[in-house]
């Protein structure tokens, strides 16, 4: 069975850094506003990102982190609880060799 560690991803936490990746041009209103965040302890690759109202609820938005631990979060989910699930056998930490266990 894969061991799952839950990391609360908070904008002010040291484990998450955000950059507003939206364009300064407002010509195209059809593009969603996205912000880019990074999950770190070393960069965490393939962490499963989940946005939801509370920890007991199901995810309304999910994605995974790239090789630099980054993911994009649409603005509509920015006020929700966002967690990064580090999944054993799937996620990897750039500080260590191999997959998380």
TrEMBL record:
PROSITE patterns, A to Z: PROKAR_LIPOPROTEIN
Top-level taxon: Bacteria
Protein name: Lipoprotein
């Amino acid at each position: 069975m894969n061991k799952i560690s839950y990391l609360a991803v908070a904008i002010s936490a040291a484990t998450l850094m955000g950059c507003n990746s939206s364009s300064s041009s407002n010509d195209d209103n059809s593009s969603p506003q996205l912000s880019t965040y990074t999950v770190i302890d070393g960069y965490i690759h393939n962490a499963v990102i989940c946005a939801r109202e509370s920890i007991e609820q199901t995810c309304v938005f999910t994605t995974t982190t790239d090789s630099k631990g980054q993911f994009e979060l649409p603005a509509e989910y920015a006020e929700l609880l966002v967690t990064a699930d580090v999944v054993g056998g799937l996620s990897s930490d750039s500080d260590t060799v191999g997959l998380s266990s």
